[in-house]
Amino acid sequence: MTACAALKEGGSSAPMVIQEQGSFAVGGTVVIAPGTFDPIAHGAFNPANQASEGQTLHGDHAYVFYQKPQKARELPLVFWHGYGQSAKTWETTPDGPEGFQSIFLRNGYPVYLIDQPKRGKAGRSTEPNTIPAKPDDQLWFGIFRMGIGREFFPGVQFSKDPEALDQFFRHITPDTGPLDIEVNINAVSALFDKIGQGVLVTHSHSGGQGWLAAIKNSNIKAIASYEPESNFVFPEGQVPEPIPYVGGQLSARGVPMEEFKDLTKIPIIIYYGDYIPEQPVENPGQEQWRAAYTMARQWRDVVNKHGGDVTLVYLPDVGLKGNTHFPMSDLNNVKVAHLLSEWLKEKGLDQ
């Protein structure tokens, strides 16, 4: 059975052979404090009153964990998480089955998982931040389109086991420093400088950052983006009007045409899940995705008008109903992964 067939039929429980795995930091900066370090006067650890003179601070890097299977395909998949998340997005699903990390390893791809700067295992920031600690699980339950309040949407593909929801809420992790997309883009670009050519797979907030990373680094040979929601990039002079929604508005950004053209040189596919309304509704958790999906359609049309290759897939239109904002964690994630596997094959990215 081919790996692609295994995906289609629901995955495999057979052992995997990992040829190589490891982890490293990439990107980041070093802050150097003025003065002279005194190992006697400054050598005692005192977090409340720690002297910095003459010392360095290494931070704002990304953390990367990678695995390469035997007889690996040529192009790796680089997975980048969304807002409030970490590489855990792509690992074991909240209800226990394999996530995209293992699914695509079984399909022969080297896999790189990113914790972006100031997040997860890349938590060392060069700037301070105040991290709030207030109950907000139901807010995210709605924004992630699982349901409203504590009630799941009818037909939702997310597990209704209370333990699975508990596991999911524990995926959320804060920024340890101020969010800076330029720092994030630079770190991901540095990763592609290190590993060479590959396919970038983004989710949510990293979607728009992914377009900017591809402009910055030509080693990004394709992008698969799950539910991008911000920083859509248009040519200067062709930026659409902001799209209002309950609670805010979604604005795009303009870049010089020379930079925008870089996005027309690579194949791009975008996926959105279910429960996204076509018309304005009262529920803010759904409304921001109506705006994002609307902007994504405009963006697809503009990129393709300039010679690009952008495909936009609304999962219910291809028979996958009930998906949340996290289709890689849903009950049908193998079927969702199969769509990406087939697209990679179609574009000749599976060699």
From TrEMBL:
Transmembrane segments: none annotated. Keywords: Hydrolase. GO terms for molecular function: hydrolase activity. The keyword Protease does not apply. The keyword Nucleus does not apply. This is Alpha/beta fold hydrolase. The lineage of its organism: Bacteria, Pseudomonadati, Bacteroidota, Cytophagia, Cytophagales.
